Amino acid sequence: LSLAHKGKTASEETKRKLSIVNKNRTRQDLNERFWSKVDIKEEDKCWGWKGSFGHNGYGLFHFRGKTQRSHRVAWILTYGEIPDGLLVLHFCDYRPCNNPKHLWLGTYKDNVDDRNRKDRQCKGSQIEWSKLNETQVIKIREYLELGYSKSSFS
């Protein structure tokens, strides 16, 4: 029977076949495709990303029908699924790194605590929307210690 007799057009049949091919893509093919984009070095070194990047410096990889950060895919391919509510964090703090030994799972709070512990957060005038610079803050604190009220600065 022709496709017309089955109620399908040629393009529908082609899409169906391509869908089957994509679903049958083996884990080995995925591994080869992903790791070919990673600059694998010694075990203890950062493994940089050779593919495309997002505006924030993380590597990007098309995985499971959407664009994902490459270090998350590195985790999944190496260790398995990422539990709900957890992030993949970097020990090395190098966003393009995909070395599984440099990655760990943590909560959003763990990520913030890690950033603060390493003193990597923006402060003062490093924050683009900051209204005061460091000198102004020091001066205001001096006036407050002298007994001036907060309302006198508005």
Structure description:
This protein is an alpha+beta fold. The protein is 36% helix and 13% strand. It has five helices and six strands. It has helices at residues 10-23, 27-35, 70-79, 108-117, 134-145, and strands at residues 38-39, 48-49, 60-63, 66-69, 87-90, 103-106. The strands form three sheets. The protein has a two-stranded antiparallel sheet. Strands 3-4 form a two-stranded antiparallel ribbon. The chain has a two-stranded antiparallel ribbon with strand order 5-6. The longest helix has 14 residues, at 10-23. It is elongated and about 80 Å long. The mean pLDDT is 86.
If you compute it from the alpha carbons, what radius of gyration comes out, rounded to the nearest whole angstrom?
25 Å
Low-confidence regions: none
Decide which structural class fits the backbone: alpha+beta
Overall outline: elongated
Tell me the fraction of residues in β-strands, as a range.
5-15%
